[in-house]
Specification:
Chain lengths: ~400, ~350
């Protein structure tokens, strides 16, 4: 026995690294890793040396100097006397705004288009096929420019809204669609409006509680409550009551023509509308295909079984098909949200002041710090994308097939 | 085997890259046989291709002058249209040899960007253009106006300062190019278009109804526009700078494209002129060029005054007066250093 265990005891020889199959793959990986590192070091070193040869260094202190330029769309207070860092923040918020609203609209249109493309109605299905193919087979930039061109060329100038100008405001003189953007009324919050908002938020919370209670009751007793009507009542009545009791604290400031342009109200700029609509329409075509594939992935037997149980078609879709389809839909949907967010950097084409236009555009131009600015931009998009996918992955794990 | 080929290729690539950067700009231009000139994407009178695709204009002429000085051929120029956003990066990266694109000489560009401005070929200032039927006669009446502005320019900062100092509000509409700004302004998406006075005049000249637009009298900034080169290659910078000086000096001494050959035949009684035209001394070789470099330049493109009158002067659609750009002897700022 002792002989057998002792026999192959050979010392480790260096040649084994190359000729012994147990070690060879590790050798190759180590060498590859070293080469990769050397290449990265060379790249960074190359960049630093060449910048030094041009008389440039890498510094980020420019972020704290005065920016000196103005930004039209600001979600936070900002003037030209603030720093480049704050200008970048204004841009970041604008990016997030258009990405967030874009994702919502793209999902709504995408789901509708995807479901309608599967419709048994020949015309509806063909129209949706046409829509999807037209949208996803043309570059996004073209759609952005088309929407922008329509918004600036086909809408009246603000001065045409004057007496006898030929253009007029819509919705009881509260909304003006002009070639500088859409002007809508702005809510003015007077004293006591906080209470109205609080009551409104409470009643929304109440609706959620009600729905949970109704579901529990249905599971236990089989009785169905008229959830929709109660929710509708809860949504409007308490908030409206407080509104009138408090003496109408919230009023609307209407946009009015004054001087060069409309004053008062909220201006939704054409650049924003163009970017938002184009991003949403373009991405919705991809989402429609994802939704369609998700629905088709649910076996036909599920539908037939539901019909055999006498469940109505729309309830079948809602309760049986969509929950199963979501498993297939959500992972590729995440990529589409990421795409939309990153595509928002095309904003510069229509002068929308996103982070690419502020930090990556004007700031870089005024300070000459291209490398630093682009690095920061890259890091911003990376972090944003990682956060979005983290949230979507959380959602995905809640809808995916639970395996026990 | 494959790996060694790969590394060999890498090493060679590294070596050639090293060699390429060691070559001076002058040598690169001479070896290539053409000058790569960063120019405007299209600004009537300054730099724009004509109907046959030939670039022409005030800035273009300076590019051609440099090409003639270095290569002896005014046509040996490759024009690289650059936007206001990409111009300095393109120059720093070596995509162009010289940038002649209505670029304002500022402290930070001259120092921090690693660039060198080699003179001023046009003394400009920022102005505002509005529709005449707005009834505005001064820039101080523009409170609340929507202003189209080219992004990435000095005008962006001047605009912010002008409105802030005068306690007025405005809505900036950023545009990427002059063409886009023109389209937005004509569509009425902005009330005001602001940029350098010269560029406004050039843009206005291309409008269908020129009289419907006025340029307001206020000039809100100093915009000295000039040719730019990379910092560090001083020999190349000298050539660019002294070509421009030569053009101005030629106007001062009455040298034109018509009489330059004649004047260069024999020395005149003006010693500076003789040194300029190479009939005495050897000033050309001092900057690495032939002794008759300026003769060729002036014969090809004319002197500063000729270039001005031909492209943007009062008899052209752009219709700019000499103003600050008259010679110093005529009350302007154009002043060439002595050829001594």
């Amino acid at each position: 026995m002792a002989d057998i265990t002792d026999a192959p005891r050979d010392g480790f020889r260096l040649s084994q690294l190359l000729y012994d199959a147990r070690y060879r793959s590790m050798t190759i990986q180590v060498i590859a890793a070293i080469l990769l590192m050397l290449m990265l070091v060379e790249l960074v070193d190359n960049a630093v040396t060449n910048l030094a040869a041009l008389g440039k260094d890498i510094r980020f202190s420019f972020l704290w100097s005065t920016s000196g330029y103005d930004i039209n769309q600001r979600l936070i207070p900002y003037t030209s006397q603030d720093t480049h860092a704050r200008a970048a923040l204004v841009g970041i918020l604008n990016t997030l705004l258009v990405a967030f609203l874009g994702c919502i609209l793209a999902t709504v249109i995408g789901v509708l288009a995807g479901v309608m493309r599967l419709s048994k109605n020949w015309l509806v299905a063909r129209i949706m096929t046409f829509y999807v193919e037209a949208m996803r087979n043309t570059p996004l930039l073209i759609w952005i420019l088309i929407v922008f061109a329509v918004m600036t060329e086909a809408t009246p100038q603000p001065r045409e809204f004057r007496e006898g100008g030929g253009a007029s405001m819509i919705l009881w003189d509260s909304v003006a669609i002009s070639n500088r953007g859409v002007f809508i009324p702005k809510p003015v919050w007077a004293e006591g409006s906080g209470l109205v908002v609080a009551v409104f938020l409470l009643s929304i919370a109440g609706i959620f509680v009600l729905r949970r209670f109704a579901r529990k009751q249905q599971e236990q007793t089989g009785k169905q409550l008229p959830v929709f009507w109660i929710s509708l009542g809860l949504f409007f009545v308490p908030a409206l009551l407080t509104f009138f009791v408090m003496g109408r604290p919230i009023s609307l400031e209407m946009p009015e023509l004054g001087g060069f342009n409309f004053t008062g109200g909220v201006q939704i700029r054409n650049s924003f509308i163009a970017l938002w609509l184009a991003l949403a329409l373009y991405t919705s075509a991809f989402i429609a295909e994802i939704v369609r594939s998700g629905i088709l992935a649910v076996s036909k037997g599920q539908t037939e079984a539901a019909f055999a149980l006498g469940i109505q078609p729309n309830r079948t879709m809602q309760l049986i098909i969509l929950p199963q389809a979501l498993r297939v839909i959500v992972p590729p949907l995440i990529s589409q949200y990421l795409n939309l967010t990153k595509n928002s950097s095309l904003a510069i084409a229509v002068g929308y002041m996103d982070v690419r236009s502020t930090l990556g555009g004007i700031t870089i131009n005024q300070t000459g710090r291209e490398l630093e600015g682009m690095l920061l931009l890259g890091i911003f998009y990376l972090i944003t994308s990682l956060i979005i996918s983290a949230f979507m992955n959380l959602y995905n794990s809640s809808v995916k097939l639970k395996e026990r | 085997m494959k790996k060694s080929v790969f590394f060999g290729a890498l090493a060679i690539a590294g070596l050639t890259a090293g060699v390429a950067t060691a070559q001076s700009t002058l040598e690169q231009v001479q070896e290539r046989g053409t000058l790569q000139c960063g120019s405007n994407e299209g600004l009537a009178g300054f730099a724009a291709p004509d109907a046959n695709g030939n670039w022409e204009g005030f800035d273009v002429a300076l590019c051609r002058a440099i090409a003639t000085a270095v290569l002896g051929d005014p046509q040996a120029v490759e024009f690289v249209p650059l936007t206001s956003q990409t111009r300095f990066t393109a120059l720093a990266a070596g995509e162009v040899d010289v940038l002649v694109r209505n670029s304002t000489w500022t402290f930070s560009r001259d120092t921090d960007l690693g660039l060198d401005f080699k003179g001023v070929n046009y003394y400009d200032g920022q102005a505002f253009m509005v529709r005449s039927d707005l009834g505005v006669s001064s820039a101080l009446e523009l409170d609340g106006a929507t202003v189209c502005i080219q992004t990435g320019t000095t005008t962006e900062l001047n605009l912010a300062d002008f409105f802030r100092v005068n306690n007025m509000s405005y809505e900036p509409v950023p545009v990427a190019t002059n063409a886009e700004g023109q389209q937005q302004y004509l569509a009425g998406a902005c009330d005001v278009y602001t940029t350098d006075m010269s560029a406004l005049a050039a843009t206005r000249a291309t409008f269908e109804n020129v009289d419907e637009h006025v340029i307001l009298p206020e000039i809100v900034s100093k915009e000295p526009l000039g040719p730019v080169v990379r910092h560090g290659d001083n020999e190349w910078g000298d050539i660019v700078g002294w070509t421009l000086m030569g053009l101005v000096a030629a106007e001062e001494f009455g040298v034109t494209s018509a009489n330059v050959r004649e004047l260069a035949e024999a020395p005149t009684d003006n010693p500076q002129l003789n040194r300029m035209l190479g009939t005495s001394g050897d000033f050309g070789p001092m900057i690495g060029l032939s002794n008759d470099w300026l003769v060729n330049v002036i014969a090809a493109v004319g002197n500063y005054g000729e270039i001005f009158e031909e492209n943007i002067g009062e008899n052209t659609p752009v219709g700019l007066a000499r103003g600050l750009n008259a010679l110093w002897t005529e009350g302007g700022l154009q002043y060439a250093m002595p050829f001594n």
